[in-house]
Specification:
By secondary structure, the protein is of the alpha+beta class. The protein is built from four helices and eight strands, in the order βαβββαβββααβ. Helices cover 27% and strands 26% of the residues. The strands form two sheets. Strands 1, 2, 3, 4, 5 and 8 form a six-stranded antiparallel β-sheet that branches.
């Protein structure tokens, strides 16, 4: 019997039909990664680290997967490519059709050249923390032990973020 692991993924889009790209990513994740067990509301947030006229739509999901962390990363990257994400040519942030980040993989801590879990920047980004707070099966960060609610309260991110769509159920 295969071991099922719970993971949290963060999804974001700020090109063209953002809602459609999120919907497409959810469909592909459900087929190739695992069963989606929980979805946050969709939040709209301004771009961080670069200028964009179109704000991001962001959400977090919980997925049950049998894949290893490395295979999970490869599958999410393949989905990004299938949806039309362009290969980055610089280290600068840029607009994208879809971005999928692995935030948590159970309560594991992984630090390698290709994968860091928990995600290295999530605790500094309200566009991840607020949707995460809605659905997280982990109530605290596996690395620091700090509870998610405290990460939200103490986050220095002053960017504009608002809950836009309370449920994607009607869209997926």
């Amino acid at each position: 019997m295969e071991i099922v692991n719970r993971v949290i993924l963060s999804l974001g889009s700020n090109i063209e039909d953002r809602l459609n790209y999120l919907r497409l990513a959810l469909q592909k994740l459900d087929v190739s990664v695992g069963r989606i067990t929980s979805k946050s509301s969709i939040y709209e947030s301004e771009a961080i680290g670069f200028e964009s006229d179109i704000p991001f739509f962001n959400m977090c999901i919980e997925v049950e997967t049998i894949h290893s962390p490395q295979l999970l990363l490869l599958k999410t990257q393949q989905i990004e490519i299938e949806i039309g994400r362009k290969t980055k040519t610089t280290n600068k942030f840029e607009s994208r059709k879809i971005d999928i980040d692995v935030i948590f993989y159970e309560n594991r801590i992984i630090e390698s050249e290709t994968l860091n879990i928990p995600h290295q920047q999530y605790q500094f980004r309200k566009f991840v923390l607020l949707p995460l707070q809605e659905i997280s099966f982990l109530k605290n960060d596996p690395k620091t032990g700090v509870i998610i609610d405290d990460l939200v309260i103490n986050c220095d991110d002053n960017s504009t973020i608002k809950k836009t769509i309370f449920s994607i159920e009607n869209f997926y």
